[in-house]
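Q: Predict the bound structure with magnesium ion.
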Amino acid sequence: MKTELRSEPLLTAKVPLRDDYARIVGLLGMNRNTGRRRADEQLLMLSRVVEQSATMVLISNSRGDIEYVNPKFTQVTGYTLEELAGENVRILKSGHTPSEEYTELWSAISAGREWRGQFCNKKKNGDLYWATAIISSIRNAEGVITHYVSVQEDITERKQAEEQLRQLNVSLLRKQQELLAAMEGLKTAQMQLIEAEKMKTIGCLAAGVAHEVKNPLGVIRLGLEYLSHQTRSKDPDTAQVVDDMSRAVARASSVVGELLSLGKAQELVMETVDLHKLLDSSLALLRVALATDHVKVVFERASSLPALRLDARKVEQVFINLIINAIHAMPDGGTLTVRTCAKQLDPTEADTVLDPQMRSRFRSGDTVVVVEIDDTGTGIPEDKLPKVFEPFFTTKAEGKGTGLGLTVCKTIIGFHGGVLNLRNRPEGGVRVSIMFKA
Ligand SMILES: Nc1ncnc2c1ncn2[C@@H]1O[C@H](COP(=O)(O)OP(=O)(O)OP(=O)(O)O)[C@@H](O)[C@H]1O
Ligand SMILES: [Mg+2]
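A: Predicted complex:
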């Protein structure tokens, strides 16, 4: 029998053996090999920790061939230790982790550094799972790396919850935007309602004025006409006074007339209208005034326009007002260009050109019909530009303008669901553009 010589720590107890006279005659010794047992117990405990651990553990050799996986690893991936033993760790790759990540991982652990990160791997059934991993190397007594240990935690549920949260956030954001747009629309509708309500009040007021003022004004005008016949030949001073009075009465009548049309702006009588015909008739009505003031007319017509549903009489009133403004702005003559076109609204126009109140009515891609009226007149000083739509704003001499023309025009176009804009042209003069939704 071969005896092996080993040195091991022993727990030993010695008791002296005595004879009847209490003389020591021998020694009784008991030894326990404690070191070995403790080492075995420690190993068992460590192995239990790994076996029962709630984290996944994988041990591979230095080439990446799997040597051990713990039960948690089997539970998550579906692979048993028998199935994986000898397989390369590549078997777990899903293709969803970038290859640079693996390169970095291998360069770290083969240099003996720890690698921490996340990857997406594939289970036996093909499903994917996400894990955070800490991979470190194990060296032998000579310091050579023999194994790698990968401790992984399954974070698939966390990832899914994160993704759900992200999607929820996106849809929340979308809902918020929808809500904001709806609120914007509501605000516009509210403004329109307030505007309509205001116009109704003005309408009532105008009707009252018409009743109370217009008829007495008519009586005064007739009286003045009579008086002017009577006085003309006799007394030139009195004749002058009567003339002044007549002009004042005419102006008062015209203010009343315009207030009345403002009040009636919302009472639209809709019909299908050929816009070109309507512009032709408006120009025809002003033929004499245009010729007298040496205004040349250029009409650039669109080859075809969609028919529009409009109140022809009111829109004609708008064109007449605008053309008269243009004539007044060109006292030494000039050119009036009327231009029409039908087009699809592009996003920049939908965002910038339009009146903010009307913005929700016009969306990019809508088909619109545009009428432009350009003149080569004086233009409008930039500081006056924001005021021109205010009621009673006028730069014209007494008796020439009431300052209600543009107010009436904008109101009428607004009630048609259209927009009216006015701006100075870079080449001089003013461009008024009217846009209707086709
Ligand atoms: N084409 C234009 N060129 C230059 N200025 C213009 C033009 N159109 C309007 N304006 C300016 O805007 C002001 C307001 O115009 P608006 O038509 O509302 O009133 P008005 O022409 O003065 O009087 P009315 O009520 O008789 O039309 C004008 O007094 C004028 O100063
Ligand atoms: Mg005017």
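A: The mean pLDDT is 86.
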